[in-house]
């Protein structure tokens, strides 16, 4: 995958980050295995490896995968897992297993 940062008005490519794996995207940053791009002030897309020239096309923008890689909210995930554990413990106590 790659991150392509571009000027929204002209769609001119400003920067390309190659070899992006395990991305997590927030509003203006992307963390990935081996790095991070934080405080991105221009538009950007996260796309599969494909040829990108001096500008992005509407077709490339349509292939953007940012929504598929949201940053994991570990606090919420931890709360959800604790609730599941509590529910399971209660269920096992009701069945006489615990």
Descriptive account of the structure:
The chain has 98 residues and is of the alpha+beta class. The protein is built from two helices and six strands. It has helices at 58-62, 74-94, and strands at 2-6, 13-17, 24-25, 30-32, 35-37, 43-47. The strands form two sheets. It has a three-stranded antiparallel β-sheet with strand order 2-1-6, with no helix packed on it. The longest helix is centred in the last third of the chain and has 21 residues, at 74-94. It is elongated and about 65 Å long.
List keywords for this structure.
98 residues; alpha+beta; three-stranded antiparallel sheet
Provide a compact summary of the structure.
The protein has 98 residues and is of the alpha+beta class. It has helices at residues 58-62, 74-94, and strands at residues 2-6, 13-17, 24-25, 30-32, 35-37, 43-47. β4 (30-32) and β5 (35-37) form a beta hairpin.
């Amino acid at each position: 995958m790659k991150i392509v940062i571009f000027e929204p008005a002209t769609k001119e490519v400003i920067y390309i980050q190659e070899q992006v794996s395990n991305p997590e995207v927030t509003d203006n940053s992307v963390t990935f295995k081996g790095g991070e791009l934080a405080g991105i002030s221009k538009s950007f897309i996260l796309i599969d490896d494909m040829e990108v020239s001096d500008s992005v096309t509407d077709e490339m923008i349509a292939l953007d995968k940012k929504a598929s890689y949201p940053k994991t909210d570990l606090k919420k995930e931890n709360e959800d897992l604790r609730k599941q554990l509590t529910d399971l413990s209660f269920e096992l106590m009701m069945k006489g297993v615990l």
